[in-house]
Amino acid sequence: MSFHFVQMADPQFGMFASVSRYTDEDVAKRRARGLNVRKAPAPITGFADETRLYTAAIESVNRLRPAFAVVCGDMVHDASDQSQIEELFRVSALLDDDIPLHFVSGNHDVGEAPTSESLAIYRERFGSDSYSFDCGDCHFAVINSSVAFDPVNVPLEWRRLTQFLIDDLSAARRRGAQHIVLFTHHPLFERSADEIGSGWCVPAERRDEIVSILRDYGASAVFAGHMHMNQYAEDAGLMMVTTGAVGYPLGEDPSGIRVVSMREDAITHRYYGVDSTPEAMP
Ligand SMILES: [Fe+2]
Q1: Model-level pTM?
Q2: Which CATH superfamily is 3-276 part of?
């Protein structure tokens, strides 16, 4: 059985306004790190840009009619700003009722080093941050990669996360899942699964534990966001796809969405700018 899903990442309501307050020095510093930050002509308030982009993305999903859609984290820029949360949910509700929408927690949603309080607020708003679902003969698991990024305040949550993955993926494997796919916010690696690691990814020590579980149960692919730019890697059969932002882009590609095709023999995918999505599933 084959089907499509749409992956989105980082609608991040409030980021355009935040970037618009950068000084020339702030912009220069980020550009020196390879981030495509542009100096805004004037300070921005609110989130009209994010509303336009995420609405265009959701309208594309309605037209493409995938089996489901997923947002891989950083739904908002400032999780304490209720207006950003409300706008995220208002636009999300424009999605057709028969297309399931899955959320993945990002560092802007739960903090760089999550706390029990930030996790409780997230779970109240979005539901569980570690969960899974099946579609067709495939299995999809979602984890809170911010816990893996820095569990200093919630060490037990990190142990819960790895136990969840072991229990969940082993059960999926026993059931004979055709593909096992992981959704996270932080990528696990940028080029190879044994790299020293950059500040973008889950740190090597905990990345190694997650990758080892993925390998034990034969996971095919990981889809992430966080970098606001597209990046692709593969390591010993494990595909690592990092998808650019629906919101503010930090790479060369525009704000966009990814269409993923799940077939028995292969997982293929393609990124589209929100203003150049296809009329129907390719
Ligand atoms: Fe992020």
Answers
A1: 0.98
A2: Metallo-dependent phosphatases (3.60.21.10)
